[in-house]
């Protein structure tokens, strides 16, 4: 077999990433985002402990448009990770392993995470 006769491996233009794989990668990414968000929370709490000037600065940074966008992204990550963790608990109990069930629970996870995020921001703002 020559080099020319060998099949080509799929590349990103051909390969369609399964929805469940996207959800799995997203779960890992949101874990990292939550870790970074926890550092922001620690900064905010430390600023509150350092006094009114430091707290006012932290509030100005987090209350700015970029700061609020970061907080919104952090809350999306938090709720997605929470909902997907509940989904994984069902898998640990032996439920939802069929492809159709896994895809359906994935859509429920994404919808619930978005709904919880919107609800939290509607209540908090």
UniProtKB/TrEMBL annotation:
Its cofactor is heme. It is a multi-pass membrane protein. One of its GO terms (biological process) is tricarboxylic acid cycle. One of its GO terms (cellular component) is membrane. GO terms for molecular function: electron transfer activity; metal ion binding; oxidoreductase activity. Keywords: Heme, Iron, Membrane, Metal-binding, Oxidoreductase, Transmembrane, Transmembrane helix. Coiled coil: none annotated. Its main location: membrane. Membrane-anchoring subunit of succinate dehydrogenase (SDH). Part of an enzyme complex containing four subunits: a flavoprotein, an iron-sulfur protein, plus two membrane-anchoring proteins, SdhC and SdhD. The complex can form homotrimers. This is Succinate dehydrogenase cytochrome b556 subunit. It comes from Magnetospirillum molischianum DSM 120. The gene is sdhC.
